[in-house]
Amino acid sequence: MSVRGVDLIKAMESYAPSALAVEKDRIGLQVGDPQAEVRKVLVTLDVNEEVVDEAIRIGANWIVAHHAVIFHPLKEIRTDEPAGRMFAKLLAHGIHVYIAHTNLDAAVGGVNDALADRLGLTDTRVLIGYKQDALKKLVVTVPVDHHEAVLNAISEAGAGWIGNYSHCTFNVEGTGTFLPRDGANPFIGKTGELEKVKEIRLETVMPASIEKRVLEAMFKAHPYEEVAYDIYPLDLKGEPLGFGRIGSLPETMKLDEFARFVKDAFECDGVRVVGNPDKEIRKVAILGGSGGRYLRDVKRQGADVYITGDVDYHTAQEVIDLGISLVDPGHHVEHWVVPYVCKELEKRLNRQVPVEPSKVNTNPFRFCV
């Protein structure tokens, strides 16, 4: 069975839901046809002409990127200029482009988790929470013989996770009744006859952001043609969702030692540092991309150092005034999310199509020393 664009989009939506994106962010399918077949996927941080040439060379007809290929409204597409040439190649070679930007920043296992993992931070939490993931209760009745399969399916999709525990459910055995009418194709029973079946009422909780994913897993594992289930809103707060992560280093370092550690961890040519070189660093805040406007949030959360990119002169002065430290490894370190996206897409598409990371270095900066 072939994979189509809608399947790829559904896979990305289950990983980095569009609901996580900030208002007016440019995300989703920006070039192409959602019904087009997916033959190979190229995952990249940015889309430029060199990346498009790479896609053509390896036979990838879908590109999944973090940064939008169309950010400002297009006024013209001139093929004698770089942007126009790139769009002409995309269309001529039938290459489709899907964007996951701020939704991938905020997603569990997205940009900021990738960066925090790279540094080995522990006890991480969201740095800048801008959404609260509401909790819902899912109740479904399952025939006894399929109970374990459905329980495992919804748990693996993310339902029933409480703290460090997964597969958290409550189960009660009872009797389900149904009478198949004309046109029905019952898994159990016969048309026109009342059927009584030993079933288990399975209850669990799930974040609202993954409801679609959990239901898809449930329907796939459940044997019935018509699944009996309920979803209830709960007056409980789920985990905060948002940008950046804050966590702890395994061991304390001095600022300049830590800056070298960041440079090596992210394989940068160099980093910019603000603060006392002898300051002890243990609690680390990190936000991929441009996070200079969140300095006061970092200060409030008690971070010893803040890692973010695109820091300007006046922001650096404010860092000193606030008494925190800063390491700027550049914007391009976000590319460390690319292997995470590849892994998630392969898993969610059941490895039906090849998914490859781009080998093009799209970082426009280099250090000359």
Automatic annotation (TrEMBL):
A divalent metal cation binds at H66, H67, D105, H331, E334. GO terms for molecular function: metal ion binding. Gene3D superfamilies: 3.30.70.120, NIF3 (NGG1p interacting factor 3)-like. One of its GO terms (cellular component) is cytoplasm. Keywords: Metal-binding. It comes from the Bacteria. Belongs to the GTP cyclohydrolase I type 2/NIF3 family. NCBIfam families: YbgI_SA1388 (TIGR00486). This is GTP cyclohydrolase 1 type 2 homolog.
